[in-house]
């Protein structure tokens, strides 16, 4: 009889199990099961692991013993480890494989995580125990434990633990609103990017464009059942179009479309920006800071907004004369070519023409030496020579798209971690390039785990007749993002909050930007820069011309980055009530640093994802700050040898492995033997002797 009952009910049981099964809950190990994930899996998994985390946090609150590092600080640190991994998986997809279903739940996911964060940091009983450990330092017997204690205490203070109950509730509401706005901003930029295409039919319209770009555009047109060429606002289309297309009116069309993203009624980011600025300011003042910049910079190497302002203004004074001289030179050159009113959509085109005339150098002539497969092999060889790493491709690790590749990274017999690569543009992927942390290094599930990290780019695809041939800019982007990946992969700390790229944001770009230098050195170029047909290295005369052109218009390029940094700081040091019109404010804030002002009706800000959706608010200056660090650091590599084992070992041990386990300036001085020289960057760019 019992067997009959079991037989009757077993099918129903299995049906319920299958219906409710969730790979994010059941199959999170050993790899994120990307191949099985559906948008509908995320909220149930987040809810499940929030419950797990809340049970752990309840146990900390209920502990009647004296608070110490292990039963309080470490217990909080590891309380939501699975929740963090599920949220990381979601944001990997939201950035790189943002289907309509993934985008549709962005607001719910962001609000859910913001609510959990608020509950954690506004919990009076938990903070009471954290504060007790801060006062007694019970169980804090190592430097890394001390760093985690300080970080935990500061996180509670900076997230409202000292506020009254009334103000805590107000902070919860602000955080919930802010969490929903960043995904909206990103979605608007992505939709605006995908909404635009430029269809061209005549040969004269595409005159000057490189063959590689034309093949890609023709393939896109063919896919749509058209003759001719289809161009998009994705970087592999947009950048070469603006650089090489002879038709000025078409360059203007592309430029206006790019600078107009986030301005039309369906994707208008101006009200989103105003709401973000208002809420950031309210949050900062609620927590006792004058501005959002003051709040952010308390946790940066710079330390305060005056230091950042002085840093940017000092560079502006030093660079502006060179940039203006370069601009006047470009005006004269363009005028001689028949263009008497130089406009922003002319800058890249005439700059490239001037460079070609002066140095007999064309960026496109380098493409044939940068076939993607050889560039990747060379990148991995550079990693081997510097840090002893080997990378072996894995085909058994689940991925979220068929173009994603995965490599196991090893140091001798020891596994370092997993490295994911997603290199080509798609409509479901946002523009640009970034490193993504899928699983951080550090203590999780009772042991110190190795990391899973990835890089996501938008590089030129292969065509019917050629393999993927990269531009020099794309090669440098690859090295840049791989530098971030190395920071995550080589992390060697105990606690995840201190691991890898969890460092001050004006330090995080050091490992990435220093890697770009290996694309400038003959010794490294000979490893990977090989002609895709003949396998010959870059000829010496071409390399000489490249070297000579490296500092071409360095002042204008430098000024462009300062322009973004100054705009960012203006937004985040100005009371939001004074930002009544986004475009007018942008024009006013950048009038001293803009090379050529945009015509009315265009805007940088509405597509400025770095500061409104990417974590760089009051932090865009950090690119130049980190460039000072990396220019100074690479001078040591150049002095000792770019593959010098001792220098590489020192950089790995003091920078790449240590994460946020110590103050970044202490780490830098230990590597370099002194504080950074601020003029190192200007020397490299040829702006000072």
UniProtKB/TrEMBL annotation:
Q: Which CDD domains match?
A: M3A_DCP
Which UniProt keywords are given for this protein, alphabetically ordered? Answer: Carboxypeptidase, Hydrolase, Metal-binding, Metalloprotease, Protease, Zinc
Which family does the UniProt entry place this protein in? Belongs to the peptidase M3 family.
According to the UniProt entry, what is the EC number of this protein?
A: 3.4.15.5
GO biological process: any one? proteolysis
**Protein's UniProt keywords contain Hydrolase:** yes
Cite the cofactor comment.
Binds 1 zinc ion.
Name of the protein: Peptidyl-dipeptidase Dcp
* Entry's Gene Ontology cellular component terms: cytosol
Matching entries from InterPro entries are given as: M3A_DCP, MetalloPept_cat_dom_sf, Neurolysin/TOP_dom2, Pept_M3A_M3B, Pept_M3A_M3B_dom
Q: Please, which domain of life does this record's source organism belong to?
A: Bacteria
Reported cofactor(s): Zn(2+)
Q: Which GO terms describe its molecular function?
A: carboxypeptidase activity; metal ion binding; metalloendopeptidase activity; peptidyl-dipeptidase activity
The broad enzyme category this protein falls into is hydrolase
Q: Which ranges carry the Peptidase M3A/M3B catalytic domain?
A: 241-684
């Amino acid at each position: 009889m019992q067997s009959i009952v079991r037989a009757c009910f077993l099918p129903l049981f299995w049906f319920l199990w299958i219906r409710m099964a969730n790979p994010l809950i059941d199959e999170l190990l050993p790899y994120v099961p990307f191949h099985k994930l559906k948008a509908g899996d995320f909220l149930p998994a987040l809810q499940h692991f929030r419950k797990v985390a809340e049970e752990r946090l309840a146990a900390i609150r209920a502990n009647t013993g004296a608070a110490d590092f292990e039963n309080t600080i470490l217990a909080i640190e590891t309380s939501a480890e699975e929740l963090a991994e599920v949220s990381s998986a979601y944001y990997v997809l939201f950035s790189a494989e943002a289907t309509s279903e993934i985008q549709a739940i962005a607001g719910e996911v962001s609000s859910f995580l913001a609510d959990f964060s608020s509950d954690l940091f506004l919990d009076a009983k938990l903070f009471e125990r954290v504060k007790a450990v801060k006062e007694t330092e019970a169980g804090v017997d190592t430097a890394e434990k001390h760093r985690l204690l300080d970080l935990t205490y500061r996180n509670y203070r900076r997230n409202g633990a000292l506020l009254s109950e009334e103000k805590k509730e107000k902070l919860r509401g602000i955080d919930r609103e802010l969490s929903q706005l960043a995904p909206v901003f990103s979605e608007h930029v992505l939709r605006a990017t995908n909404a635009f295409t430029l269809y061209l039919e005549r040969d004269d319209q595409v005159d000057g464009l490189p063959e590689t770009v034309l093949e890609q555009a023709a393939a896109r047109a063919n896919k749509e059942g058209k003759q001719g060429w289809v161009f998009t606002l994705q970087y592999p289309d947009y950048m070469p179009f603006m650089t090489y297309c002879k038709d000025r009116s078409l360059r203007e069309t592309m430029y206006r479309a790019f600078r107009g993203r986030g301005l039309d009624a369906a994707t208008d980011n101006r009200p989103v920006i105003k709401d973000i600025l208002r809420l950031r300011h309210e949050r900062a003042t609620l927590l006792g800071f004058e501005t959002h910049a003051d709040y952010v910079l308390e946790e940066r190497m710079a330390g305060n907004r005056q230091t950042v302002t002085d840093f940017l203004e000092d560079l502006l004074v030093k660079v502006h004369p060179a940039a203006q001289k370069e601009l006047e030179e470009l005006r004269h050159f363009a005028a001689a070519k028949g263009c008497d009113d130089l406009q922003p959509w002319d800058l890249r085109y005439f700059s490239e023409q001037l460079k070609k005339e002066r140095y007999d150098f064309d960026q496109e002539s380098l493409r044939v030496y940068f076939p993607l497969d050889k560039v990747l092999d060379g990148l991995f060889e550079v990693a081997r020579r510097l840090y002893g790493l080997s990378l072996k491709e894995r085909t058994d690790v689940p991925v979220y798209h068929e173009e994603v590749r995965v490599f196991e990274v090893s140091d001798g017999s020891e596994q370092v971690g997993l490295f994911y690569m997603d290199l080509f543009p798609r409509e479901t992927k946002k523009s640009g390039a970034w490193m993504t942390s899928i699983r951080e290094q550090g203590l999780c599930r009772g042991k110190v785990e190795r990391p899973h990290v990835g890089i996501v780019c938008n590089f030129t695809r292969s065509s019917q007749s050629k393999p993927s041939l990269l531009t020099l800019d794309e090669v440098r982007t690859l090295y840049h993002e791989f530098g971030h990946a190395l920071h995550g992969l080589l992390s060697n700390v105990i606690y995840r909050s201190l691991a890898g790229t969890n460092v001050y944001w004006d330090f995080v770009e050091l490992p990435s930007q220093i890697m770009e230098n290996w694309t400038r050195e003959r010794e490294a170029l000979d490893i990977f820069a090989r002609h895709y047909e003949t396998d010959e290295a870059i000829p010496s005369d071409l390399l000489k011309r490249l070297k000579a052109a490296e500092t071409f218009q360095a002042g204008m390029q430098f000024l462009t980055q300062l322009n973004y940094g100054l705009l960012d700081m203006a937004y985040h040091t100005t009371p939001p009530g004074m930002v009544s019109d986004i475009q007018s404010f942008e024009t006013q804030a950048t009038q001293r640093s803009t090379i050529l002002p945009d015509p009315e009706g265009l805007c940088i800000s509405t597509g400025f994802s770095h500061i409104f959706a990417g974590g760089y608010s009051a932090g865009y200056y950090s690119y130049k700050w980190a460039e000072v660090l990396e220019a100074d650091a690479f001078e040591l590599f150049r002095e000792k040898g770019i593959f010098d084992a001792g220098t590489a070992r020192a950089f790995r041990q003091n920078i790449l492995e240590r994460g946020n386990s110590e103050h970044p300036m202490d780490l830098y001085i230990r590597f370099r033997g002194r504080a950074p020289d601020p003029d190192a960057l200007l020397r490299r760019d040829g702006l000072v002797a």
